[in-house]
Each structure stands twice: as structure tokens, then as C-alpha cells.
Amino acid sequence: MAVVKANSGDIRLLARLLRAEAEGEGEQGMLMVGNVGVNRILADCLDFKNIRSINDMVFQSPGGFEATQKGYFYQKARDRDIRLAQRAVNGEQLWPASNALWYFRPVGNCPPTWYNQQHSGRFKLHCFYVPKGEDCPQVYR
Questions:
Q1: Is-above-0.90 flag for pTM?
Q2: Nearest Cα to Cα of residue 10 among 34, 45, 36, 46
Q3: SS (H, E, C) 78-93
């Protein structure tokens, strides 16, 4: 059962985002990008008010994903990417991205906070960050 509304075109769009943002992080890393994307749709708080669809989330500007804003969002979704996107839309979550709204790839260690958001953990090269519960309770479903 999907936790956000999505048709097959939405799933392919999300799959392209997973590939563009985290192909080098393997399937777990790609699924975590999907977790962050789904969380942004559900959140309706902070930088993500009025993000209601996968399309809104993928192409959010400013504040969206680097892949869509810096020109490396051009590859087609593969079957593997589509399966991972569907898993994210179905609500499968992996720590440290399960409640995260942000991630980034630092040069060194993950800072304990990033734009006043708490570090939830690291997976390979990416650091994940969660909002305070009182700032965004919808993320903690």
C-alpha cells in the first residue's frame, strides 16, 4: 500500500532521481534517497510546505535536489531503480533516512547539525538529517 499517491510515471520519475542522486551508494543508498523524497511529500513543514506530489518533490526549487538543479538528471530509470522507487513509495524505510528530510555528502565527517537539523546517521558517503519533532511531526509517522 502506497504511503504517497503515485502512478507509473511518478514511480519512473522517482527512480530517475534515485539513480541520479545515489547510484554510487548501491541499492540501500538509493532507497534512502527515496525515503527522504517520500518524507518531504508527507512533511508539509519547514522547506517542504505545499510539496504534495512526487513531481513537486523532484523538481522543488529552491531547496530541492542537486541532480535536478545542476544538470545530471538525464538518465533513464532501469528496472532495478523502478523497483527501489516502488519500495520507497510503499513505505519501506531504512535508518538513518527513515525520518530524514535532508542528506548531503561532506568532504569529511558528518557535522552534528546541518542548518540547525540533527544528524541521524551516515550511510557510505552521505550524512542524513532529521527535523525536530515539534517542527515537523508528520515525518515521525
A1: yes
A2: 34
A3: CHHHHHHHHHHHCCCC
Written as one string, the DSSP assignment of 93-106 is: --TTTTT-SEEE--
Average pLDDT, the chain: 95
H or E element in which residue 66 lies: helix 66-69
The b-or-e profile of 121-137 (16+ CB within 10 A means b, else e) is bebeebbbbbbeeeebe
d(CA 102, CA 131): 9
CA gap 40, 37 in Å, rounded: 5
pLDDT digits (tens, 9 = 90+) for 3-53: 999 999 999 999 999 999 999 999 999 999 999 999 999 999 999 999 999
